[in-house]
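User: If only I could read backbone structure tokens as easily as an amino acid sequence. Those tokens are not coordinates but codes from a learned vocabulary of shapes. Could you go through the record with me and say what the backbone is doing? Here is the record:
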Amino acid sequence: MANDETAGRPAPRQVRLDHRQVRVLAHPLRMRLLGTLRVDGPATATVLAEKLDTNTGATSYHLRQLAEVGLVTEDPDRGTGRQRWWLAAHDMSNFEPTDFDDDPDTRAAVRWIQGDQARLLVEQSERWLAAEHGYSRAWRDAAGMSDVLLTLGPKRLRALNDELWQLVERYRDESVPDEPDPQPVHVFLAAFPRPEGGR
């Protein structure tokens, strides 16, 4: 992993999700709230409701649920009177699916979260395909998707995923070079066995 301090950035705040956090996070609005706070920074429930096309009451309720398990927190530098500003407590969260083998409810929540990630991949891909004609040739040639079928055991698959993640983190941690038209880029990593014949 790149040294965040030498790159001039603080190391990302990470959390390994526990049972309670996973169960609370397995909700469509809560996932969107946490994602928006991580990407766009601190906001009030009203601002978040407008961004996510929902109502302030629902947004406030779900922010409190996320706060109860330590995934969001109030921003002490911005709150004034009745106006509460919220921020993500961490930049990244992770877990191993096997962390929850002993808890059927949390396993179901993990499946929902992973399914939501797959839905987000499809949604973002479709948005890109609908909008790509408005981008420059350089962007259209740089962006894309592909797939490959490898024959790996679990040890090598884990090594591949770890190496890919280190590469992504290196790009995240590096200073943005003097390059024309830098924009946020959504990167998804997915690698799993190809189920065949009920296996």
